[in-house]
Amino acid sequence: MPNERIGVLCSGRGSNLAAIMEAIERGDIRAEIAVVIADRADAYALERAREKGIPAVAVVRKEHFDMEAFEGALLNELYTHRVTLVVLAGFMRILSPTFVYAFRGRILNIHPALLPSFPGAHAHRDVLAYGAKVSGCTVHFVDEGTDTGPIILQAAVPVMEGDTEETLAARVLEQEHRIFPEAIRLYAEGRLQTVGRTVHILPADEGGAS
């Protein structure tokens, strides 16, 4: 039986959520999605979850007095659904140190650039503006900074002549759909060991508590 209960936080269409659900259905990841939470009531990610019979909840920022109340509502949903691993799949909000502390070492994020280069919300725009020849995506643990947590997996893609933010994003997204489920699989198997800033991937027969 799966041990990890995943809470997925989204803001938009949920394509990474779909990739994770597919990997679980194939048996690649020994975990279950306990709840999907979006900060927008119209996020298509919620519909994707409902189609699979997964609890789907909208926790909208403007419906809460301040960020503390908003994050309190998020945490309440995660606790209610007994979540053990939080996955940020296109969640377009910075989490406070208080939230990070509540799930320290148990929050994964996917960023559409090769960290530590080009952190923040406009990675593709920044990559193109800088004239970089290579971009990609990064799965990392979340800490109190913005896209500063220890790196788990990365994948590179070329930046092509004539690329726009949209064409680059599409190329990167293909790799996101590959490495995000892989990172979750490694976590669920207890094969990620963090020493300082370095995440070591343990052999399959050495996996333990993550």
Automatic annotation (TrEMBL):
Substrates-to-products reaction catalysed: N(1)-(5-phospho-beta-D-ribosyl)glycinamide + (6R)-10-formyltetrahydrofolate = N(2)-formyl-N(1)-(5-phospho-beta-D-ribosyl)glycinamide + (6S)-5,6,7,8-tetrahydrofolate + H(+)
Keywords: Purine biosynthesis, Transferase
Keyword Nuclease: no
GO cellular component, as recorded: cytosol
Residues where N(1)-(5-phospho-beta-D-ribosyl)glycinamide binds: 14-16
Residues of the active site: 111
Sites annotated Raises pKa of active site His: 147
Pathway(s) of this molecule: Purine metabolism; IMP biosynthesis via de novo pathway; N(2)-formyl-N(1)-(5-phospho-D-ribosyl)glycinamide from N(1)-(5-phospho-D-ribosyl)glycinamide (10-formyl THF route): step 1/1
One BP term from GO: 'de novo' IMP biosynthetic process
UniProt-annotated binding residues for (6R)-10-formyltetrahydrofolate: 92-95, 109
Key word Transferase present: yes
EC number: 2.1.2.2
GO molecular function terms listed in the Swiss-Prot or TrEMBL record: phosphoribosylglycinamide formyltransferase activity
Domain (Formyl transferase N-terminal) ranges: 5-184
Pfam families noted in UniProt: Formyl_trans_N (PF00551)
Domain of life: Bacteria
Similarity section: Belongs to the GART family.
Function: Catalyzes the transfer of a formyl group from 10-formyltetrahydrofolate to 5-phospho-ribosyl-glycinamide (GAR), producing 5-phospho-ribosyl-N-formylglycinamide (FGAR) and tetrahydrofolate.
NCBIfam families membership: PurN
Name of this chain's protein: Phosphoribosylglycinamide formyltransferase
Lineage: Bacteria, Bacillati, Bacillota, Negativicutes, Selenomonadales
